[in-house]
Amino acid sequence: MKNQIKDMNEEMSQDAKKLGDDISNFFEFIQTSYTLASDSFKNELQELEQQLLECLMCSEFLKTLTRKSDQKDSKYEKTPVDVSNVSSSDVLLMVRRLKESNLSLVYNSRFSQGSSTFQNTEIVAVRNKMNEELAAWDEKIAIAENELEMMKDLNEKLKKQSRDLEDEEKERDEEYKEELKKKLNEIYKVCTGSEVQVADPLLMRVAIDHTIQGILVEINTYPRKKVKELIKTLEAEKKLSERKAEEALRAQRATERMKKALSPAAKKLFACFMNGKKKKKFCTLAHISHEYYRNPLRTTVLGKRIAVFDPHPATSSLSFS
Q1: Residues facing 305 on adjacent strands
Q2: For residues 72 and 79, what is the distance between their CA atoms, to the nearest angstrom?
Q3: Which residues of 44-53 are buried (b: 16+ CB within 10 A; e: fewer)?
Q4: How many beta carbons lie within 10 A of that of residue 299, not counting itself?
Q5: Contact 169/2 with Cβ under 8 angstroms?
Q6: Whole-prediction pTM value?
Q7: At what angle do helices 88-192 and 2-78 cross, to 10 degrees?
Q8: Across the strands, what pairs with 317?
Q9: Contact status, residue 182 vs residue 26, Cβ threshold 8 Å
Q10: Which of 264, 249, 258 is nearest to 289 (CA)?
């Protein structure tokens, strides 16, 4: 479990590093794209400014032409033209030139207006597109930051769990060592027979090994037949003690059953004696005790059969609770 948590922590840290690198690359890409877009935008603005300057220069030039024509007209007004010397071809030529100049003026004005409106619409479209892209990148950055925060929180939780597991393992190791020390002390006391507490477990082990080796040497010195007989006697004593314990337990259970069965009978008999009533289905205490000592395995009290087991009926006593 601890290794799994460590692996998960390492994976989370690697993912966090990758995410940080991606975010840094993302920011660099945004900066580069922004610089490129700003440079292109600046170039476009410079071109537009140049075109506007050209248009202004054209308009100024046309204004100068109109002023000159006005001055000429004023001169002509002051000095009346002699129409007799002017031919029809000259008049047509002048009209044609005036038409051409008017057409060029109209064309230049329309071209300047169209180019300016087109450039304005292009600039607005580019700005809107850039704003949309920046908003999308901002959303992506916010999502990436939220994911990074979640990964950091998960990493902290996993670190806390690993610390808790390490603390639990340390506590378990300490408890296990304390239990081993207690068992070693008990074995040392049994082997050496001394109540002196020894702090060093190595010394206790050496003493236990020494006593065990001495016991083995003594066992080897005895003849094998005697050892076998001794083992048999020990096993027989063990079995006898187990049987005695079982018999005592059975006797205890039998007495408890008898007490439970006789307690309501004693109450009823006491009530009958107090009221002075004697019924055939009840029997006296002497009769109950006589029947119990005659046949302890089957005794009838108050019309009920009680299973009793008593290994020593002669020494048992009948008691009512």
Answers
A1: 300
A2: 10
A3: eeeebeeeee
A4: 22
A5: yes
A6: 0.31
A7: 170
A8: none
A9: no
A10: 258
